[in-house]
């Protein structure tokens, strides 16, 4: 019985975590589960969060995080839209630390500014990543197709985007997917990139083949139950031998 009570107390109550260079309010030896404990730092220091005070929460005998006070002149990680940099394992950067920004594909540094320094708790002249004039915006929508890669707002020059045609649709070359490229700020779109219904077409490319299936009881002169014609130099290669004739009539003849 008593060991069980002791174990429950260890779960419900928790002593205050160590805090170098700061203080808790209120300061107690132990805190019940559910306590939200504020803390602040001594002069010249600040919490390791982007505020001048912070809190930790006791849940079932554990604090939600480790409270920490750091140098007032340290800097927190900046937000660089469309850019990246080497992240600090500590979660902050010491004064005079220099960040080197790498812009995402399709972006470049405005005014060629690529670095920023931590000075007295703030970053100096944070680089701005703007879209490159040779990059492309979102690719065009193709009817009856979907892009099979992650969404992007900007694509670098020479980027390739692949579309997958809807079931029952394909390109003029009968491919079920189609690609376009970012070339000098524009997409290499053409009508041949379209996904068209394979059951019906208004226009056929040169050398296209169309297959006809004869009705039951009918066949071509050669006795085939299907026949094909081809698009040759703008005309169809139709001939009488391609016709489907009544099989009984052929037999009688």
Q: How would you characterize this protein structure?
A:
With 253 residues, this protein is mostly beta strands. The protein has 4 domains: 13-71, Complement Module, domain 1 (Ribbon); 83-131, Complement Module, domain 1, CATH 2.10.70; 145-197, Complement Module, domain 1, CATH 2.10.70; 208-246, no CATH class. The protein has helices at residues 2-12, 247-252, and strands at 13-15, 22-24, 30-32, 36-41, 45-47, 53-59, 62-63, 69-71, 83-84, 98-100, 102-103, 107-109, 115-119, 122-124, 129-131, 145-147, 160-165, 169-170, 177-183, 186-187, 196-197, 209-213, 218-219, 226-232, 235-236, 245-246.
Annotated CATH homologous superfamily of the largest domain = Complement Module, domain 1
How much strand? 35-45%
Biggest β-sheet strands, sense, barrel: 4 strands, antiparallel
CATH topology of the largest domain: Complement Module, domain 1
Shape estimate: elongated
| Helical run tally | 2
Low-confidence stretches: 1-12, 249-253
**SSE-based structural type:** mainly beta
**Gross CATH architecture of the largest domain:** Ribbon
Quick rundown:
The chain has 253 residues and is mainly beta. The chain has helices at residues 2-12, 247-252; strands at residues 13-15, 22-24, 30-32, 36-41, 45-47, 53-59, 62-63, 69-71, 83-84, 98-100, 102-103, 107-109, 115-119, 122-124, 129-131, 145-147, 160-165, 169-170, 177-183, 186-187, 196-197, 209-213, 218-219, 226-232, 235-236, 245-246.
């Amino acid at each position: 019985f008593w060991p069980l009570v002791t174990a429950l107390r260890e779960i419900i109550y928790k002593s205050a975590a160590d805090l170098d260079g700061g203080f808790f309010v209120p300061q107690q030896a132990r805190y019940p589960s559910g306590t939200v404990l504020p803390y602040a730092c001594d002069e010249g220091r600040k919490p390791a969060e982007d505020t001048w005070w912070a809190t930790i929460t006791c849940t079932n005998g554990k604090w939600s995080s480790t409270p920490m006070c750091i140098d007032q002149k340290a800097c927190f990680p900046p937000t660089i839209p469309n850019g990246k940099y080497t992240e600090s394992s500590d979660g902050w950067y010491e004064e005079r630390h220099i960040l080197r920004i790498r812009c995402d594909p399709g972006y470049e540094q405005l005014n060629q500014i690529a670095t920023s320094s931590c000075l007295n708790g703030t970053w100096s002249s944070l680089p701005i990543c703007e879209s490159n004039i040779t990059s492309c915006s979102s690719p065009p929508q193709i009817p009856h197709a979907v892009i099979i890669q992650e969404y992007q707002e900007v694509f670098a020059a020479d980027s390739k985007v692949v579309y997958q045609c809807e079931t029952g649709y394909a390109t003029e070359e009968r491919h079920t997917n189609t690609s376009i490229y970012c070339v000098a700020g524009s997409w290499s779109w053409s009508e041949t990139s379209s996904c068209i219904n394979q059951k019906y077409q208004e226009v056929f490319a040169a050398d296209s083949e169309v297959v006809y299936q004869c009705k039951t009881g009918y066949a071509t002169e050669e006795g085939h139950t299907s026949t094909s014609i081809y698009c040759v130099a703008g005309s169809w290669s139709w001939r009488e031998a391609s016709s489907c004739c009544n099989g009984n009539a052929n037999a009688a003849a």
